[in-house]
Specification:
Helices cover about 85% and strands about 0% of the residues. It has about 110 residues and is mostly helical. The protein folds into 2 domains: about 50 residues; about 60 residues, no CATH class. α3 runs antiparallel to α4. Keywords: Membrane, Transmembrane, Transmembrane helix.
Length: about 110
Amino acid sequence: MKKEIIFLTPIAICIVVAIVIIALYNYRLKKRIIDSGPIDENSLKFLMSLSGLGSEVLKWGLIFLFGGAGLILIEFLPYPADESSLPYGVVLISIAMGFLTYYLIMKKQQK
């Protein structure tokens, strides 16, 4: 278990730093567009596409919800801990179900 944590920690830190940098640059881009003067319809559509915060929160909330449910499910499944890859499969399937749920919700909203 310690080997996985040592391996996953730098990856998680890099992902968090990348998300913060992307959010910062999106903010700066929106600020420059707004400060440049009157906004036409195309600029407004572009700004709205950058501001997809509600769907991002929904996506990550569903992924964490289903991932957590998969981790809880693992606790109730009997398996040999040293030899089994069952926990990885359960967590991956539950996360995939979260992504599919998000996809279906977004597809329904676009109609």
